[in-house]
Amino acid sequence: MGIFGYLIGSWAVLLVAHKALKKPVEGIAKVDPTAETIAHTMYDGVDYTPQNKYVLFGHHWMSIAGTTAIFASITGLIWGWLPSLIWMLVGVHFAGATTDYFAGMYAVKNQGKSMGELASEKIHERTGTLLTVLYFLAGLMVTSMFIEVMADTVVGVPEAGLPILLLIPVAMLFGVTIKKGFPLGPTTAVFVILLLIVVGIGANFPLNLSVNAWMAVFIFYTLGAITIPVWVLLSPRDYLNTVLVIGGLILGASAMLIFRPEVQLPMYTSFFTERGPLWPMIMATITCGAASGVHQLIAFGTTARQLEKEKDGYFVMFGGMQGETFMAVVSAAMIMTFFSYDGFMESAYPDPGGAFSNALANALELYGLDPVWGGTIGALTFGALLLTTLDSWARNGRYLLQELTWNYFGKSRIITSIVFMIIAVIVLFYTPVMDLWSGIALGSITLLTVPLSLLIIDRLESGEVFDRNFKIFVVAPLIVIYPSALAAVIYELYRFVVEQNWLSFVLMVFMAYVIVSMAYYSISKILRLLKERKAEI
């Protein structure tokens, strides 16, 4: 298959699936077009506030995607481009987009409660607490890791620093304009032009700051971003960043479609690779871009609290996850065409972020664009993703800290924001955050089971039958995910022992405990309900 067929075929699958799966997936979630969402019933103008579905789509897509979709799709090419493509297209439609959507709709229909709170009520209190801690750790690790990666990015390409900072006031002005009722279409057109002007001007004034100086900038930025109302900066900035990211990806993808560079990476390499065996490790490697349970942190957090109508949920959350797969496919395609396998193992595999920026610059060179500008556009696209993910995950981490410390200082948004950022800074400077992230990323497989288990329990308690759609999108994925998650954790435990990476080993033991606990209490509850149903019959 050439690169043209790879891209067009993948996009066709995403478009057809989006239309074909809407009715069965919404049926499982029991969407009520007339119901008031928590954005209205719990409105506070800060966290709970109804948002235009297109703006919210941009927020959700950019928040879940970040750079991990790029990292994951590139790293997954170690098994060859065919296994990674199959898992991305199958995983997103039967595990990733569905669980994102189910988790978000669960929160919408249950007073904005997190998956941890709902698991405490419906499965077991211990399981719920463990899950809340795991979700919190995910938000914390993403915040710490992305502050570091963001600083490294702008140090490496100083021309990207000022444009990234200037995006902040532009986004705030856009947020205020939309809040005052100006029409979205014309306003978007005006601000996209302003965005391009700002990027063009800013790129001519490189900021040569140290890594620590940039870290300080992003630490204080994040603290402010997670404290102020969500409509002021978070959602409008994510929406505008969508334009920047889509623009960069479309430029790269169109260059490949027009000039059709040859695919250099093999279709399939080996079942056993440096990353581990194809199963289950491809599921643990390509999480973002296929199926990642940590996305639920965004779905039941900021997204659910801004959903204006239940019927918007499918477009926003299911579609947002498909958007991440679109991004992952394009990222993988650029690497496939600009790196040989030896080159991939030498540079792209150990540094997927740098490889993405270089590959995008190479793609833009096909148009005759100067390599310096190509590199700047690549870094801007990369940086926009980082900044979007950074404050969204930090804000949702703050929500979970409020949940965990409600009886102490959880009611105070400002105090919990400060405490969250202090913990994030400690993790950033005093722990091997990049090593620890591999454990949290692996835990994302486990989290896929949470909304699926809750759906099964709800259906058993209500006495409803398991129809064909429910079996396909809920029961079957759960049966596949549980053993895959446990197998991946066992493999990683072995690897960390061999590498003597004891801190990551301890985190992985916690992951194993969460998986076993979740499985034990969920299956026990399901079996008890099945027994009760049988007795009633």
From TrEMBL:
Bilayer disposition of the protein: Multi-pass membrane protein
Entry keyword Transit peptide: no
Cell compartment(s), UniProt: Cell membrane
UniProt entry keywords in alphabetical sequence: Cell membrane, Membrane, Transmembrane, Transmembrane helix
Primary localization: membrane
Domain CstA N-terminal: 17-335
Transmembrane recorded as keyword: yes
GO cellular component labels: plasma membrane
Entry similarity comment: Belongs to the peptide transporter carbon starvation (CstA) (TC 2.A.114) family.
Protein name, entry field: Carbon starvation protein CstA
UniProt source species: Natranaerobius thermophilus (strain ATCC BAA-1301 / DSM 18059 / JW/NM-WN-LF)
